[in-house]
Amino acid sequence: MAPSSPRPALPALLVLLGALFPGPGNAQTSVSPSKVILPRGGSVLVTCSTSCDQPKLLGIETPLPKKELLLPGNNRKVYELSNVQEDSQPMCYSNCPDGQSTAKTFLTVYWTPERVEGGAPRANLTVVLLRGEKELKREPAVGEPAEVTTTVLVRRDHHGANFSCRTELDLRPQGLELFE
């Protein structure tokens, strides 16, 4: 049996991978802002920065429409991300002589309900059942569509009463407002 010859492609592949992915180094990528809550269809400015002065690459990876805003310097780029329709995690990346690194920003999209069971983020959405102006029941909107039931003892003075429901999207903890 003849000895097998070395595979020259394998060392070349390893060298290529080492060049593309040099591993951890001192380069640091940062993103600002790190968390954003914005209305569906909205836009946001995202800044990608790196700690090295002369990055080989600096950019953002996202399926969202993006436009780079021109700034002086090599270690910072600002992108306008537009038409944000759903939650997303764009990732800034840099490739510097001393290593590669990444940083993510977390985009949370909200929208007010077009129907009673609509709206997002669901964690901030509540369904309220009413008789006239009196609140009968309040529950978090779970699932799509959300389902909330209650039992009402009917009395004579309820004749002609108006039963209804509404949803409340409470974004006050994020510095926005309560949408009904």
TrEMBL record:
One cellular-component annotation, GO: membrane
Entry keyword annotation includes Iron: no
InterPro entries, alphabetized: ICAM_N, ICAM_VCAM, ICAM_VCAM_N, Ig-like_dom_sf, Ig-like_fold
Pfam families reported for this sequence: ICAM_N
GO molecular function: integrin binding
GO biological process assignments: cell-cell adhesion
Residues of the Intercellular adhesion molecule N-terminal domain: 25-115
Keyword Signal: yes
Keywords for the protein's UniProt record, in alphabetical order: Cell adhesion, Disulfide bond, Glycoprotein, Immunoglobulin domain, Membrane, Repeat, Signal, Transmembrane, Transmembrane helix
Membrane topology: Single-pass type I membrane protein
Signal peptide range: 1-27
Subcellular location: Membrane
Family of this protein: Belongs to the immunoglobulin superfamily. ICAM family.
Identification of the protein by name: Intercellular adhesion molecule 1
Classification lineage: Eukaryota, Metazoa, Chordata, Craniata, Vertebrata
